[in-house]
Design goal:
This protein is an alpha+beta fold. The chain is 56% helix and 13% strand. α1 packs parallel to α3 (69-88). It is elongated and about 65 Å long.
């Protein structure tokens, strides 16, 4: 696997996630394009935007979040692995975070309702 400009721990986690969902480097078609947005001259001169396509499924991901091509390559692979996991019906990090936020909002709503109820009774 290619090394990226991120910690070894993050690379290890990405490699494990790719193995979980059956994503192989040889199944990924990678291309680089010029990014847009913030970054000034650096973004205008270099091709930091990364486009990944999973050949067997046709899933595609574009990442131009960072100014570094290496970091964008890492993020794009992580996003592709999550997208593939969702399409396979596996638990994804995105779904887990969304569930956590829903639980937090429900708890906050219950607390507020309880406060209003006790305030109206007084």
């Amino acid at each position: 696997m290619t090394t990226f400009a991120v910690s070894e721990e993050k690379q290890k986690l990405l490699k494990e996630r790719m193995q979980e969902v059956g994503l192989k480097e040889e199944d990924i078609e990678e291309s680089f394009v010029r990014s847009s947005g913030k970054g000034g001259q650096h973004v205008n001169k270099t091709s930091t935007c990364v486009k990944l396509k999973h050949k067997p499924t046709g899933l595609a991901v574009t990442c131009m979040r960072e100014r570094s091509q290496s970091i964008n390559r890492f993020i794009a692979r992580r996003e592709l692995a999550e997208k593939l996991a969702e399409s396979m019906g596996l638990v994804s990090v995105k779904a887990t975070k969304a569930d956590k936020i829903k639980r937090q909002k429900a708890r906050k709503k219950r607390r507020t309702a309880k406060k209003l109820e006790t305030a109206s009774n007084e």
